Amino acid sequence: MKIVSWNVNSINVRHPNVAKFLKQVEPDILLMQELKMTDEKFPREVFEDLGYNVATHGQKTYNGVAILSKHPIDEVITGLPFLIEGDEDEQSRYIEAVISFGDEAIRVASIYLPNGNPVDDGSDKYPYKLRWFDRLIAHAEQLLTYEEKLLLGGDYNIIPNDDDVWDAQRWRGDALILPQTRAKFRKLQNLGFTDCFVTAIAEPHQYTFWDYQAGAWPKNHGIRIDHLLVSAQLADCLSKVQIESYTRDWEKPSDHVPIMATFDF
After folding, report:
1. Domain range holding 256?
2. Which of 52, 112, 126, 156 is catalytic?
3. Which end of the chain is more exposed for a tag (fewer CB within 10 A), N or C?
């Protein structure tokens, strides 16, 4: 089974590239982030015609997440529970579903964690990022009690280590690399999750995002912020991880590229 996460940065612009990728790679499941589109306008027919079932949690102009699957989609959940007092859950950043295949099932989630920048402008952006992460941790801890094959994939907007950025010093002070941010990511992992990339590749300076500005892509000035975290029941089945960086050379590319994990059941 091949499972992919990809921040497409506007499905309206990028749906031809997504369709091209699906035809070439034929993943079983695709988790998408940053749709920037409501559910009603999502081009589901494009993907259904390719044999995929579709579940979306969209939002006008911003955010938005989706799950595409060649297999039946069940138990769709949109939005995180454990709402913290004073917050509103108006941003479409989380969708979860159970995917059935044969006698097996896997629970997957597509996640678009808040960016959190700018940190010191007096706004609530960074505190909101941390609170949202606390909600994700609480929900993930509950999901692990089900003892299922579980994958939490998406754009976490977190650079876990200095080896995951082209120049760590240039990023000091950014919300993606702050110690508090990294501590939240470690807390999530320490619940019992495995980072598929670290297990299967673990090579430094492998990236999933290159900014559109300042020639970041040709200079390889990238960061690794798209992650696939799996429960122990799924980690045992992991066989391979690939970063599909060639898609960054396509016409009208996303600033992110797909990351794919292959599992043997």
Report:
1. 2-263
2. 112
3. C
